[in-house]
Write a structure and sequence with these properties.
The protein is mainly beta and 118 residues long. The chain contains no helices and 11 strands. The chain is globular, with a radius of gyration of 14 Å. The relative contact order is 0.33.
Amino acid sequence: QVKLVESGGGLVQAGGSLRLSCAASGTIFSIKAMNWYRQAPGKQRELVAAFSSGGSTNYADSVKGRFTISGDNAKNTVYLQMNSLKPEDTAVYYCHVRAGLIRISDYWGQGTQVTVSS
């Protein structure tokens, strides 16, 4: 049973910083990517940042230059450093892992709330 545990969300003023962490536990083979998504009220879930097993990264245009995704493959952990936060970054942030050898599976965390006040 694979479980993703997120931490680091909270309330911060505009311009502030937060660091999210997501640790994957359980038996998990061949992680392809570890990503962060977010979903604001009334909006669709969107990809914020992606981290591949090879170390490449990709970001949504709205967070480029402000957010940094990094990973520790040995610990099956992914981080999201969020700087210069804006009120529009307010959302529930979800960790996502894609993994598998023959059959690819997607795993999701329970979500962590990030609220940025103006």
